Amino acid sequence: MYTASLKTKYVREIVPALMKEFRYKSIMQVPRLEKIVINQGVGQAITDKKLLEFSVKELTDIAGQKAVQTYSSKDISNFKLRRNMPIGVMVTLRQDRMYEFLERLICVALPRIRDFKGINSKLDGRGNYTMGITEQIIFPEIDLDKIVKIMGLQVTFVTSADTDEEALALLKHFGLPFKNIKN
Q1: 9: Cβ–Cβ under 8 A, 6 or more apart, which residues?
Q2: For the residues 22-50, what does the mean pLDDT come to?
Q3: Cβ neighbours of residue 126 under 8 Å, at least 6 residues apart?
Q4: How far, in Å, CA of 66 to CA of 56, rounded?
Q5: Are the C-beta atoms of 69 and 89 separated by less than 8 Å?
Q6: Considering only CA atoms, which of 66, 126, 68, 133 is closest in space to residue 104?
Q7: According to the model, what pLDDT value does residue 2 have?
Q8: Mean predicted lDDT score pLDDT of the chain
């Protein structure tokens, strides 16, 4: 049976390293990556419905799992937005697909960003990290000839860590290239 190499790395290397670093008494205390949520807001979908279909297909290709549409929760007249109008696309990855996506993100997609110097190390205060990607074309699954519009997306890493310090250490051990972090 196939297991993602990052999952194996987590069990063999990251867990013992974090147990030593934070002096955990049990393996169950070690923070883990619970899920990765990829989200893309498609504000232009209000006027162009085809854009949403292309976004669903692209996000499905990137994640390797079917993406779903998200809907507006309230009316905003200035944006010509009505309640329950489709305005975005999202996909939640868990288990092996999550580790495979993380590996592709770290090894293939992020190095393809022009003038890449690392990602910010600002977490949300609860041990979760969200990074923005300005162009979806950094992923090799996207065919450049079939791009309708270049759009950005957000990738959220949800961890079981209690503090930002623990979550940052976990993500750093996975290999996320944070900038301005002292080792």
Answers
A1: 174
A2: 81
A3: 164
A4: 8
A5: yes
A6: 133
A7: 64
A8: 80
Please give the torsion angle defined by the CA atoms of residues 94, 99, 100 and 102, in that order, rounded to the nearest 10 degrees. Answer: 110
Q: Which tokens sit at 41?
A: 């807001």
* Amino acid, single-letter form, for residue 37: V
Cα–Cα distance for residue pair 19/16, rounded to 1 Å: 5
Q: What is the 3-state secondary structure (H, E, C) of the chain?
A: CCCCHHHHHHHHHHHHHHHHHHCCCCHHHCCCEEEEEEEEECHHHHCCHHHHHHHHHHHHHHHCCCCEEEECCCCEHHHCECCCCEEEEEEEECHHHHHHHHHHHHHHHHHHCCCCCCECCCCCCCCEEEEEECCHHHCCCCCHHHCCCCCCEEEEEEECCCCHHHHHHHHHHHCCCECCCCC
Residue 66 burial by CB count (10 A; 0-12/13-18/19+): exposed, middle or buried? Answer: exposed
CB 31 within 8 A of CB 18: yes
pLDDT of residue 99 exceeding 80, the answer is yes
User: Would the pTM count as exceeding 0.85?
Assistant: no
Taking CB atoms within 8 Å and a gap of at least 24, the contacts of 18-25 are 18/166, 18/169, 18/170, 18/173, 21/169, 22/166, 22/169
